[in-house]
Hints:
Low-confidence stretches: none
Oligomer: single chain
CATH superfamily of the largest domain: Periplasmic binding protein-like II
CATH class of the largest domain: Alpha Beta
Shape: rod-shaped
Largest sheet: 6 strands, mixed
Strand content: 15-25%
Amino acid sequence: MKPAVNLRQIEAFYSVVRSGTVVGAAQMMSVTQPAISRSIALLELRIGYKLFERRGRRLLPTPEGEAFFREIEPIYGSLDRIAQTAQDIGQLRAGELRIATLPSLSLGVVPRAVAEFLKDRPKVKVFIQVLPSRQIADQIATRQFDVALVELPLSKASISIEPLDPVPICAVIPKDHALAEKNRISLADLDGERMILLSQHSYIRYQIEEAFTKLHISPNVVLETPNSLVACALVAAGAGISLISKVTALPFQSSEVVVIPIREQLASRCAVIFPYPGDRMKLAEAFAAQLRATMQNF
């Protein structure tokens, strides 16, 4: 028959080996010294051999005790790591975070926010997916992601929506264009220019069209795309001028492209969303706070 031992007896043995004394083991386990002595005595009785020999005040494992310790040490080492991981998760130093973002924020704001977020969290693992806003909302609602960024307006059950500060829309202009020398332009300056605009279903396009109408401007729209990153890339290739959110446009600013503020008050609106109802992951809330700070300094 297998000897009937329990985890408390094995823990007492492990603690005595590590501390070298019954006193030290009792302190490690937060029990009395007699409790440690009884556990060791019962363990030796049930396995049928001596585990320790006394030398002065110290207890040294016998050869059999050393062999037994080598078998159980990996298990307790894993438990120590598990306990440390549990503490790290509680203090937001470990865990996994699943983030979804719309494409327009995937090259600038989100990478910068994630990098800053991970500086003090080396044990945290992050997974990032880039999707359209409505698909993101569907997947947040089914808890496939912990936190996400979407374009507004958006309405859906089973998600919590927290709007971010509006971000101004800027002109993205090829470096060799005449308007590239200006510090600020008006939409009126774009009359007759070759334009690359977002598709008509976007909120940014709606604002732009309304502003053009008020100024009695008929833009020469030569290209349309639902993806603002594609619009910026087309500008860099010299295909025309675009009007894009500042946080999307700035990563494209280079020797080929300039980003210039416009006088008209146009802005993109985004939001952080979480699954709802239920408690939010603390890591997700911490990342949302970092994202807001990053956007304010972008």
